[in-house]
Amino acid sequence: MTDIVVVGSINADLLLPCERIPRPGETLHAHARSLVPGGKGANQAVAAARLGGSVALIGAVGEDHMGEDALVLLEEAGVDLAGVARVPGSTGIAVVQVEDSGENAILIEGGANRAMTADAVRSASSVVGSAAVVVLQGEIPRDGIEAAASACTGRLVVNLAPVIPVAADVLRRADPLVVNEHEGAGALKLLGEYAQGDHAVVGCLIEAGVPSVVMTRGAKGALVGRPGVTTEVPAPTVEVVDTTGAGDAFVGGLAVRLASGDDLVEAARYAARVGAFACRGRGAQPSYPWAGDTLPG
Ligand code: RIB
Question: Which of 66, 135, 282, 288 has the least CB density, counted as fewest CB within 10 Å?
Answer without folding.
Answer: 282
